[in-house]
Amino acid sequence: MNRAEVTHLRAATPGCARVVHFNHAGASLPSQATLDAILEQLQREALGGPMEAADQNVQARARTSAATLLNGAPEAIAFASSGSAAWGMAFNALGPWKTGERILVGRHEWGGNLACIARAVAAGAQLEVIPCDESGAVSVTALQQMIDPQVKLIALTWLPANGGLINPAEAIGALAREHGIAYFIDAGQALGQLPCDVQALNCDVLKGAGRKFLRGPRGTALLYIRPGFMQRLKPTQLDVLSAPWDGEGFALRGDARRFETSEVSVALLAGLANALEECNALGPANIRQRIDSLSQDLRKRLVTLPGLTLHNLGPTDHQSGLIAFTLKGWDSVELKQRLAQHGINIGANGVAYTPLDMQARGLESIARIAVSYLNTEEEIEVLLGHLRELAEGGGV
């Protein structure tokens, strides 16, 4: 992705002219075309009636584009209001849980997923944390040694929210498939940032929000369910879409839409469809290369700032665009707020986001820079300049 292409993409993204945005892991900046898709659908609904304007082609475009992105089938894709909602629906559909059944998770598991798992633990299931290897990633060797017939689920947060780690998702998937164990991937920070091939990952369930690196609207998320795994999942909530009347009773759908309801925001799906199409057109491999180049350079420069400590895990030559750090003398939330006063957006995470990992590393909070292909070298200079002044105590 060359400079001219980046300039073109930024020109097509209104927010780039107003803020220096390094919070793509929280929510990225949508393109004008994505905004237009949402507004045009709302306009059609306002003028012709919301039900009458519910064009099924919008959903078909979004589903087909999502399947292309994931190398899956359209019928394996469901849409949800958030990544957490998608993961929770799939997890709850695995039940009921029995005493002694084991759930294995990485130390970096997303807090929302752990909250769902807590109910299974209350029912008698055991939650166990897979040890990390020397780099801080989930250890595949340790996982191998933990597997027995009582393991019912392996859950992995692929790219944790509190740093640049990229967990070995494919190797874990191969192990799960070998032993016939259900394998859920939280790909919230992966979708739109690096290639996500569900066939190579060997996952049974994968979810991710539309608002992050995919640059889609808030209130949208993808849920992939492997077709061969579909029948194992019994949704806890049904309606006339997920379990339509077949003349004799309500029959559960055979595709991933068994997790959808008849009520949906077509406008948001129109925006998501456009964002997915833009991501596919750019190519996840090209996106990954651009983000990797920018973030590696930024990490090298951040460590030169006095009082700044990086808190990333994983091999230094294989990390995501998420950069976790703390700055001496600064609370992470206050640092985020101070930078926002100057039109610079970053993130700040507390223990609740990744509680097992944050507690294991003795971290109360981290500031987080999330790099996108939309970011430029000039924006990095602006960010570094303000952080340097704060680090030196001069005030921004």
What do these coordinates show?
Helix content is 38%, strand content 15%. It has 396 residues and is of the alpha/beta class. It folds into two domains: 3-30 and 283-391, Aspartate Aminotransferase, domain 1, CATH 3.90.1150; 33-281, Type I PLP-dependent aspartate aminotransferase-like (Major domain) (Aspartate Aminotransferase, domain 2). The strands form three sheets. The chain has a seven-stranded mixed beta sheet with strand order 2-8-7-6-5-3-4, sandwiched between helices. Helix 7 links the parallel strand 5 and strand 6 (182-186). The longest helix has 19 residues, at 284-302.
Task: Give a quick precis of the structure.
The protein has helices at 3-11, 32-48, 56-70, 83-92, 111-122, 140-146, 169-179, 198-201, 266-282, 284-302, 332-340, 355-360, 377-391, and strands at 20-21, 77-80, 102-106, 126-130, 151-157, 182-186, 205-209, 221-225, 308-310, 322-327, 344-345, 347-350, 365-370. The chain is of the alpha/beta class and 396 residues long.
How do the strands and helices of this protein lay out in sequence?
Blueprint: H1 3-11, E1 20-21, H2 32-48, H3 56-70, E2 77-80, H4 83-92, E3 102-106, H5 111-122, E4 126-130, H6 140-146, E5 151-157, H7 169-179, E6 182-186, H8 198-201, E7 205-209, E8 221-225, H9 266-282, H10 284-302, E9 308-310, E10 322-327, H11 332-340, E11 344-345, E12 347-350, H12 355-360, E13 365-370, H13 377-391
Parallel strand pairs: 1-11, 3-4, 3-5, 5-6, 6-7
Antiparallel strand pairs: 2-8, 7-8, 9-10, 10-13, 12-13
Helix pairs in contact: 2-9, 3-9, 4-5
